[in-house]
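Hey team,

Filing this mostly as a record. A colleague (T.K.) asked me to run one chain through the structure pipeline before their review meeting, and I want the input and output archived in the tracker in case anyone asks later how it was produced. No errors, nothing strange. Just documentation.

Input sequence:
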Amino acid sequence: MPINDEIAGRRLPAATGSWTGRDTRLYALAVGAGGADPGRELQFTTDNTAGVTQRVLPTFGVIEGCRVGVGGLLHEIDGVDLSRMLHGTQQVEQHRELPTDAEVITSGRVSAVWDKGKAAVIETEAVTADAESGEPYVTSRQSLYFRGYGGWGGERGPSSRSPTPEAKLDRTLEATTRLDQALLYRLTGDTNPLHSDPAYARAAGFPQPILHGLCVYGIVGRLLLNEFADGDPAAFRSLRGRFSAPTYPGDDLVVSVSSRGPEHPFVVDNQRGERILSDGLLVTA
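Output structure:
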């Protein structure tokens, strides 16, 4: 189907999936767990450390969610140039702690379509549940920005959220991404060449391959979980953010966040002072 109002509300094909402890450990490494100190965050990166039970970073839930909410969507709409597609926003809501091994089914739908004139924005929602019991683990909500696919006369949609009140952001967390961070993160399943092929990235208007937005999202989610929930995945409720500018492997991430909980608004800048993630909000128990 073409991108227009007719796809709003469309159900996306459900997909069965599974993961193992190896998958969740790889994801943890891909979003920087143990990068600054391999002796820390061992509950996410190992399965054989004495006295440590392996657990799963809550943002791992975006993997299956985006498999349907992004990959399933792309199968439903007419072929689009992936170099013109950008991840706009991401939210994951955890209903119960993710197990290290699981068989799941993910169902999804197109929740909204907006005509921005020179671009189209498609919002999707996907729920990942246990394949046997049907109990949900996570709900993933994402918006995708398609440059050059607007202009059909549809509704423009709501404006972006109100800016995060920076006066309330009283704590700073920092992380440095690896030069090979995108190559590592693509092993989790997101093999868009925008993140690995220099010629493809240049054709899309970038000087070099950019880092996956979901990798930045996972790094930030991990930092915030460790800071405000003592690394306890059971205390995680939700995380949202709006991708504001591209991030490149090797960039520094500077997270400015409110320390007052259980709701923690935040923004993320890079070392050049560019706002790369806005409208952020972590909710903990």
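Quick notes for T.K.: The domain at 5-284 is CATH 3.10.129.10 (Thiol Ester Dehydrase; Chain A). The two ends are 41 Å apart (CA to CA).
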